[in-house]
Every structure is written in C-alpha cells, then in structure tokens.
C-alpha cells in the first residue's frame, strides 16, 4: 500500500532523470484512512530519514495540513500522533505518482505503485 512513509522514499528512476526527480507529485489520488498501531519509538527512530518538506507537501496534496512547516525539535506525544497519522494511516489506493522533472507517470492501482519502467526508459 502506498502510504506517505513510502512516498517519502520514492524518486523517479527513468533514463537520464537524475535531477529534480524527488519528491514525486501525487495526482488524482483516492485516499483511505486506516488505523495503525501507534509506536512512538519507531517514529523517533525514523525521523532522521524523513525529507520533511516533501512530507508536508505530500500531506497537503492528500488534504492533510496537520504537520508544521518546519520539523520540530521537541517530539512530544501530540506531535508524534500527528506524524503517525500522516505517515502510516493515510493510504493511497488509486492515482498516480508523477516525476516533477521528466513527467513520467507511475500509476497506483489497488494501493500498489507500479515503479517498473519499459526497456527503453531504463538508464
């Protein structure tokens, strides 16, 4: 399933697309909320890997504006619960991921992004 935790790790890998290929833009997405078990230790450990501006923008693209624009230094429970919701409970079931550089479209169907490329697109 595409969740924003996954989206935050994906970049375009099409042939000759190696600049401005992250973050992929979300297009025509259908979103579903699904509860997930809250694990504050996991979130604290994952924080250094997050590209914060990309996460905030992706959350906005799916209609969630709960995250602060700047990554907070204090990781209190209220913030961690907001982060948990955005990263792990927002599921993208249908739509597309679009490269901001080359425009390549990676379709999302049944919650799974198709990141495969045609042979002529492989670099």
From TrEMBL:
<dbReference type="InterPro" id="IPR039127">
    <property type="entry name" value="Trm112"/>
</dbReference>
<dbReference type="Pfam" id="PF03966">
    <property type="entry name" value="Trm112p"/>
</dbReference>
<dbReference type="GO" id="GO:0046982">
    <property type="term" value="F:protein heterodimerization activity"/>
</dbReference>
<dbReference type="GO" id="GO:0070476">
    <property type="term" value="P:rRNA (guanine-N7)-methylation"/>
</dbReference>
<dbReference type="GO" id="GO:0030488">
    <property type="term" value="P:tRNA methylation"/>
</dbReference>
<protein>
    <recommendedName>
        <fullName>Trm112p-domain-containing protein</fullName>
    </recommendedName>
</protein>
<dbReference type="InterPro" id="IPR005651">
    <property type="entry name" value="Trm112-like"/>
</dbReference>
<comment type="subunit">
    <text>Interacts with TRM9.</text>
</comment>
<comment type="similarity">
    <text>Belongs to the TRM112 family.</text>
</comment>
